[in-house]
Design brief:
Oligomer: single chain
Largest sheet: 8 strands, mixed
Strand order of the largest sheet: 6-7-5-15-16-17-14-18
Bound molecules: glycine
Structural class: alpha+beta
CATH class of the largest domain: Alpha Beta
Strand content: 25-35%
Number of strands: 20
Helix content: 25-40%
Order of helices and strands: EHEHEHEEHEHEEHEEEEEHEEEEHEEEHH
Number of helices: 10
Number of domains: 2
């Protein structure tokens, strides 16, 4: 292993790309090892930026708010480095409730604007009749992760010299008697077994992370989704209903999510029950949307942890850093994860500016061994 060996980022999904980008921006040589890009949660998620609409609490809410605030400058960096637009849309999110009491009990109600039925109808003409109240979070929004952000990040990484090893599956991590990471074993796209020497790596394998490091409490929670083609501007804001949400893109495509199936494990594919649940959710939330033509259907695996917060920072193997376990909030938390963790990784080597004391404290709340 030599000091010029690149830092390896294990996982080419949103978190892996975001880490590679921030590390490369800080002058680190980086190689991303990616098994199958299409399974990355970054291509599956709806792209909601919703710490308030999703009612996060405690340190996870603070992390989400910190990330939401970082979004515009993070996106500006990606767009400047790679030249592609990321599709950030600060359009606000409306959360409908069946009663004013349910609305007022929402954990983040204090951050939103309370709506009665008339206010809800004004925001969302045609909203289902079972909803009598709502909260408008103007500060929440969305990004077009599937069609724009992932591609933009990939280009930004390439422009900064990040290397990619596509179709390669990491099989094992090798550490020495001192507990220091020494190498990763992988199978290349051509089926060749390789050992890559490396003293430093970032584990960003999403729902599959525990397959490499079994002590990590990360498990898959399957989500099925679909998209509809609405008339352009039929929906101005994201609608985050109970169990179903509608995320309208600029061109009228509406992404609809999502089932939450912990019991499904890694079982692949759509199911009639999952698709029925989404259709019923659409009909209850916005009846007219049941008439909009369906475009695509897909599924993916959220990387969940026991407290639904991510695992960030050092691991039990010296030199192996964790950026995984973001569950429902990977798209939201990408900027804060990448910026704070890249600063920590570089400053641990005496390179670059360390994160502020407040940011370090925030990261420390998400250590893998907190449970
Ligand atoms: N954040 C939405 C979801 O995971 O379905």
């Amino acid at each position: 292993m030599s000091s010029s060996d690149p830092l390896l980022v294990l996982g080419g999904g949103l978190m892996g790309l975001a880490m590679a980008h921030q590390l490369a921006r800080r002058g680190r040589p980086v190689m991303v090892i990616s098994r199958r890009r299409s399974e990355a949660a970054g291509f599956v998620a709806a792209g909601m930026l919703a710490p308030h609409a999703e009612g996060l609490g405690g340190a996870l809410l603070r992390l989400g708010q910190r990330s939401l605030a970082a979004y515009p400058s993070w996106v500006a960096q990606i767009e400047a480095d790679g030249g592609l637009n990321c599709g950030l849309r600060p359009c606000g999110i409306v959360v409908p409730f069946t009663s004013a009491a349910a609305r007022d009990a929402h954990p983040t109600a204090a951050y939103g604007q309370a709506l009665d039925r008339a206010g809800l109808e004004q925001e969302l003409p045609g909203i289902g009749t079972s909803f009598q109240a709502g909260l408008l979070f103007e500060q929440d929004g969305q990004i077009d992760n599937r069609r724009q952000l992932m591609r933009a990040l990939e280009l930004a990484c390439s422009a900064l010299g990040v290397q990619f090893q596509e179709g390669a599956e990491v099989l094992a991590l090798e550490s020495g008697s001192s507990g220091q990471l020494e190498a990763v074993k992988l199978r290349t796209a051509e089926g060749e077994l390789q050992t890559l020497a490396c003293g430093e790596a970032v584990l960003a394998c999403g729902a599959w992370s525990a397959q490499l490091l079994p002590q990590l409490p990360i498990f898959p929670v399957k989500g099925q989704m679909l998209s509809l083609q609405a008339p352009q501007r039929a929906l101005g804001r994201v609608v985050f209903g109970p169990g179903t949400y509608l995320v309208p893109r600029e061109d009228g495509l509406v992404v609809v999510g999502a089932t939450s199936e912990a019991e499904a494990g890694f079982s692949e594919g759509l199911t009639p029950q999952g698709q029925r649940t989404l259709q019923e959710g659409i009909a209850a939330l916005l009846p007219q949307a049941s008439q909009w033509p369906p475009m695509e259907r897909w599924w993916g695996f959220r990387p969940c942890t026991p407290d639904e917060g991510p695992l960030l920072g050092p691991s039990s193997i010296a030199g192996l850093w964790l950026a995984s376990g973001h569950h429902r909030n990977g798209v939201l938390l990408a900027p804060v994860t990448a910026e704070l963790l890249a600063a920590e990784i570089c400053s641990a080597r005496g390179q670059g500016k360390a994160a502020s004391a407040a940011d370090q404290q925030l990261l420390a709340a998400f250590r893998w061994d907190r449970f």
